[in-house]
Amino acid sequence: MCIAGCLTGSLILEYAPAARWARKRNDVLKLSEDVLRHVEAVSEECGLEDLMNQATYPPNGALRFNESTAEFRNCATFDEVYDAAKQVNPCFDICEFHAGSHE
pLDDT-derived band of residue 26, with 50, 70 and 90 as boundaries? Predict the structure, then answer.
């Protein structure tokens, strides 16, 4: 069962962390270096990496990000990671992803 609570739009919840997550979990995902570099470049270009750099605990205030602008710039990093993972492993299921410890 996959339960995902929504606190904001998918751009922030899924797309912003996708590049870092894919790089960190690539021992399981087995994505090519080209795919990883592409997703990281898109993340940087769309301002998603800047958003992730602002995400600290404890928080330092509101995140500064214009979500409406990024939605129209092909910033679907999560979708690209998911599609690439399905090509590597047709049985890939994001809700059944277990990569060792949950840091």
Answer: very high
Tell me whether residue 52 is in a domain.
Answer: yes
Structural domain includes residue 100: no
Residue 77 to residue 91: CA distance in whole angstroms: 20
Instruction: Say if 103 falls within a structural domain.
Output: no
| Domain, as residue range, for 64 | 10-94
Asked if the structure places residue 102 within a domain, the reply is no
Q: How confident is the model at residue 96 (pLDDT cuts 50, 70, 90)?
A: confident
Cβ atoms of 79 and 43 closer than 8 Å = no
Dist CA 31 CA 38 (whole Å): 11
pLDDT value of residue 34: 97
